Amino acid sequence: MKRAIVIVLDSFGIGGAPDAARFGDEGSDTLGHIAAECAAGRGDRAGLRSGPLSLPNLERLGLGLAAELATGVRPAGFSRETAEGRYAAPAEQSSGKDTPSGHWEIAGVPVPFEWGYFPPEPPSFPAELIDAYVRETGVPGILANCHASGTEVIARFGEEHIRTGKPIVYTSADSVMQIAAHETHFGLDKLLADCEIARRLVDPYRIGRVIARPFVGETKDTFKRTANRRDYAVPPPEPTLLTRVEAAGHKVFGIGKIGDIFAHQNVTITRKGKSNDGNLDLGIAALREAEGGDLVFVNLVDFDTEYGHRRDVAGYAACLEAFDRRLPEVEAAMGDGDLLLITADHGCDPTFRGSDHTRERVPALFAGKGVRPGPAGRPDSFADMAESVAAWLGLAPGLHGRSLL
């Protein structure tokens, strides 16, 4: 009975993307720089963590060696010369560094077109787009209309939003329109309904996602985003690995925001927790429930939203160490025929300038009985990971990539 579990450590890049300079990201290295900062004592935080970065279970599966494949340098504190798992350092083929591109390519479909983006100079959104949004949603106007980080823009405009009823609409270097609103003063249902309208309105601009960003609190010092985020993505341009799993009569368990990322296409069962730990609990439970041929696809988003974008080295390091401590739980839930793949969709180097994603290679760590350990090189597409999973599950090959197993 062969099954597969894919865990995406959202934004956990390992540096070395061959086209990083094209994105202004040359030199970015999420893992390498976190490890270096921790080794230098700059990743310490009282009551949270201290000392060198410690990821013994990920290192056991080949993380340090994959990072060395990516950059030519072993991260600080990583010393293992051999791995129990099969490891690679794939680069992204799609011309983006965002969530949909990364996940779709992990699922076997590189994005063949250029996304649309909103300019960094305010106002970021075209007047005709905002006019249509205001007219169709009935809101009294919008706030922000700029590039911003989510926590900063809520702190800056949240009180005015409560007072006026105007949603906070902003973007970033990704192909995205984000709408933040208070869960009670504005209403969560109203926010989600308005985002569905915005999703339709941004289609002509080739925008990858509209993201609902609900928050609570009454003042800039108490505002906090909630776990009721919702991503409204366009569907993948081709059938994905998920399509092949369902077509073979099996189930896809989408854990975390996987359902949103794939526009709920070919995700048989969707479950969403409130944190990395919550989603990992759901992923382990799904693996215990899954039958032969099923795929459990897990996204752990806290690395990105809570620490990468906020440029929080200590927080990111602690989050990695927390996942590493729980990795044996995943392995204990696996049967003899199961395949584990741990990877990422892009980078978000917390030491890099700005607050956006970074173009990097990602780790591809395979484990399970029957997986031949050792290096699998530096693939030029994330789609190789999809073909590896497909081959393991006995599915027909897709149009892109090749198995690394």
Detail the topology: elements first, then pairings:
Blueprint: E1 3-9, H1 30-39, H2 56-61, H3 63-71, E2 86-88, H4 99-106, H5 127-137, E3 143-147, H6 150-164, E4 168-171, E5 176-182, H7 183-202, E6 209-216, E7 224-225, E8 230-233, H8 241-247, E9 252-255, H9 258-261, E10 269-271, H10 276-289, E11 295-300, H11 302-308, H12 313-333, E12 338-343, E13 364-367, E14 374-375, H13 383-393
Parallel strand pairs: 1-11, 1-12, 2-14, 3-4, 5-6, 9-10, 9-11
Antiparallel strand pairs: 2-13, 4-5, 6-7, 6-8, 12-13
Helix pairs in contact: 1-12, 5-7, 10-12, 11-12
Structure keywords:
405 residues, alpha/beta, eight-stranded mixed beta sheet, six-stranded mixed beta sheet, 13 helices, 16% strand, globular
DSSP helix count? 13
Write out the strand line-up for the largest beta sheet, numbering strands in chain order. Answer: 10-9-11-1-12-13-2-14
Rg computed from alpha carbons, rounded to a whole number of angstroms: 20 Å
- Would you count the extended β strands for me? 14
Largest sheet: 8 strands, mixed
Overall average residue pLDDT:
97
Order of helices and strands: EHHHEHHEHEEHEEEHEHEHEHHEEEH
Distance N terminus to C terminus?
Answer: 18 Å
Strand percentage? 15-25%
Helicity, in percent? 25-40%
Which shape, going by the Cα principal axes? globular
Instruction: Outline the low-pLDDT stretches.
Output: none
